[in-house]
Every structure is written in C-alpha cells, then in structure tokens.
Amino acid sequence: MYFSALPNELVVHVFESCSTVQNVLALAATSRHFHSVLNASQKLAILASSAEAQYGPIEDAIQLITHNASQPAHVKRKAPLSMSLLSQIIEVGKVASTWADIYPLRRWKRNYVDRRLLTTYENYLIRRAVYRLWLYARAFHNSRYGRLSRKSRQVVMERAKLLHNWSSAEIGEIEDVRLIMRDVVDSDICPSNGTIQRKFRKRFPESDHQLLFNIHLNYPPPATSFQSHFHSMHQTTSSSRFTPPPPAPSASLRNQNLTYLKYLATANHEPGQEGWGDDVPHYYVVNDMMKLDPGQILWLKDNAPMKYMVETFVRGLGEWFDNNGETFGETANMVVMERDDLEMSHGGYIGLQETVDTGDMGVVTWG
C-alpha cells in the first residue's frame, strides 16, 4: 500500500510520532493531502508535541518568553498555546540546542579522550538550564539594576526568590552550563593577553614579531562600520526580541577572514591590541560580559571576531553595563548557604563550582 493511501487516522499518528517540528512541516509539504490532514487535525497540539521533544522543556521556555518587567520573575506564568508563542519557543529553542552542541566540546576541552555524545536527557537538561539562565539575565541583568542597586536587600531577595524555584541539583546544572558560556567568553569573545599570545604563536610559529598589549583597557572611539551589523535582544523588534536575525550568507566567510586577520600582524593591525588584559583586569571584563544572555553570547561568538566589534556591541547596551559584574554567582552563593541539607553548603558557591568540576553535580555526572 502506498503511504499516501493510508487512512487519515494513521497519517495523523505518523504526524504525532515526528520528533522535530521540521519533520512535521516537511511531511505536510509533501502533498496537498497531507497538508490538509495536518490542518484538519490538531495541528497546534502536534507541533507543540514535536517542539517539546526537540526544544523542551517548553514550560521553561514559556517562562522566559512571557516574562516582562511588570511581573516578578519567580512567579510561574501560563500562556495559551498559539502559533505566535510556538514560533518564539522554536526561536529560543534553537539557541538552547546550539549550546547543547557546544557543551561536549567545551566540557571535555582538555581531556578530550573522554569526550562523547550527550544523551537525550542530558540535552534536555542543558536546554532547561539555558532557558533558566536566560530568564535570570532578562530579569536582573538590565538597565533597571545598576551597580549601586545590586546590594540592595530588596533586589537581592528578588533574585533569590527565582533561584528558590529550583532544587540544588538544578542550580548545579545551571552552573555547569554557565561555566561553558564563561569559557566561550573567556577564550573566544574576550580573550586575555595570554590567550592572544598563545594563539598567535600557534598560528605563526615562525614569526619573530613581539606582540604589543594594551596596559589600560580604555575603549577607543566607536567603530561605526560595525554599528549597522550587530543586533541584540534589547534592540530587536518584538517579533524577534530573543535572537538576532541570521547573518547574510557571506557573513560566515567574512568572519572566518576576520578571525584570521585578528592574529595577523600588519602595518595597520597589531594582534596584541585584541587582548582584554591580564589576570585581574581580564577577570573583571569577563565578569561584566557574563551579564549577556545566552543568545547574545552565541551571537557575539559567531559574528564579532574582532575586539572593536564586541566593544561596539557592549557600548550599545548602555552605561549600566560597564563595571557592573554578573550577579548569578553571588545569588547562588546565598541560596546554597541557606540550604542546610546541602552537603556543600559550608563551602558556599565555590563548593558548588568544585562539585560541578569534579562531576558530582551538573549536567554530566560521574556518579
């Protein structure tokens, strides 16, 4: 029997068995008959089920999508399912899935012999952690929370209420993913002078050029040539406020060329100027950059290989961003210390990081 001759009930069952939204739409596009069957059945429910399998948990994605400044971040929100909401779920889900692809490459960056594919459940945990970390960034890393208000008791308690929604194990998963993002910021977006030196020697081992690094990290005048090319969650329209528009087809090749030129010493370019400082200065730069949400970090990684591009992007966020480090760490520290049943509570947040590093907690555990 031809597939097209199957009863509609079986065709609907095939639609319901699709594990990705793309598969559902591709099957519906194969013929007018299948397209009409999908539209005549519970199309929204079928697409939602596929989105849950591919980008779930969509409940956490909905918490991110529906958050706004008029509602406390820790209050659970419900929204009726619609095609508009589903398209936004897919939008943030693609970002979360990309971080799931990045995770094994960074988690086993040095001990690459242990590198492996992630299980379906581990991918699920990473996406959930990305949604929750993204929600925290949207709620508390913005112009309403400047440097002077970060220690306010009311603000601290608001941040803690959000983390109280999650168990200690779930906070460990978020921290595991956050460390992966920090590694991307540390090595790719804002590399230290030492990282620039190491990558320069790796690319040009025969060169006798001595790199010249900035002692002071004062920003140069804005680079207007990049101004029209970057987008952020804060500057996009309401229909695409979570992820920037995809780059032009030639952008990938352009960025590859810029990445090569980043470490190429010429009469007009000094690779040492691409560094973001040593040790203490670099630490504070990375702390500032960790206020960016997962979508922004991913976009900078793919589209801003040069230092001036990153500076232009950050400058566009506003003055509140400078010298105002991320607050997730200190909030997690307070929440962990409040939980007496947590074995690592005596070590606070440092203990949490160590527990994640050793594999006792996090997305991938050794136990």
Overview of the structural elements:
The protein has 367 residues and is mainly alpha-helical. Helices cover 56% and strands 0% of the residues. The chain is built from 17 helices and no strands. The chain has helices at 8-17, 21-28, 32-40, 43-55, 58-65, 83-107, 120-140, 153-163, 168-189, 193-203, 224-227, 251-262, 279-289, 294-303, 307-315, 328-338, 348-357. Helix 6 crosses helix 9, helix 8 crosses helix 16 and helix 9 (168-189) runs parallel beside helix 14 (294-303). The longest helix has 25 residues, at 83-107. The termini are far apart. Mean pLDDT is 86; it is low at 217-240.
List the main descriptive attributes of the protein structure presented here.
367 residues, mainly alpha
Number of helices: 17
Largest sheet: none
Radius of gyration: 23 Å
Terminal residue distance = 50 Å
Helix content: 55-70%
Structural class: mainly alpha
| Spans where pLDDT lies below 50 across 5 or more residues | 217-240
Beta-strand portion reads under 5%
Give the overall form: globular
- What pattern of helices and strands is seen along the backbone? HHHHHHHHHHHHHHHHH
Task: Provide the residue-averaged pLDDT.
Answer: 86
Q: Got a strand count?
A: 0
Short description, anyone?
The protein is built from 17 helices and no strands. By secondary structure, the chain is an all-alpha fold. The longest helix has 25 residues, at 83-107.
